Amino acid sequence: MGVVADRSVATRVLPRTEALALPDIIRTQSNLIPPDEAEVRIVDIVGLDV
C-alpha cells in the first residue's frame, strides 16, 4: 500500500506540562508518556492525528 493522502507532518518539542495540556493528546498522557520525561515530542499529521 502506498501513500493514500498527501498530508503535511509537523513536529515540535514541548515541556511536559505544556504538552499534556493539549486536548489532542490527552488520551495518551496516562499510559504512553513515562512520568520522568521532561519534554515531549509532538507529531502532527495535519488533518488526521496529533
Count of DSSP strands: 2
Percentage of residues in helical conformation: 10-25%
Instruction: Give the mean pLDDT.
Output: 85
Sheet/helix structural class: alpha+beta
* Physical arrangement of strands within the biggest beta sheet: 1-2
Q: Shape, please?
A: elongated
Sequence of secondary-structure elements: EHHE
The Rg value, from CA coordinates, equals 13 Å
**What does the largest sheet look like?**
2 strands, antiparallel
Quaternary organisation of the protein chains: single chain
Total of DSSP H or I helical runs spanning 4+ residues: 2
Please state roughly what percent of the residues sit in beta strands, choosing from under 5%, 5-15%, 15-25%, 25-35%, 35-45% or over 45%: 25-35%
N- to C-terminal distance: 22 Å
Low-confidence segments? none
Helix-strand layout with pairing:
Blueprint: E1 9-15, H1 16-20, H2 29-32, E2 39-45
Could you characterize what this model shows?
The protein has 50 residues and is an alpha+beta fold. Helix content is 18%, strand content 28%. The protein contains 2 helices and 2 strands. Strands 1-2 form a two-stranded antiparallel sheet. It is elongated and about 35 Å long.
Short description:
18% of the residues lie in helices and 28% in strands. It contains two helices and two strands.
Short key terms for the protein model shown above:
50 residues; alpha+beta; 2 helices; 2 strands; elongated
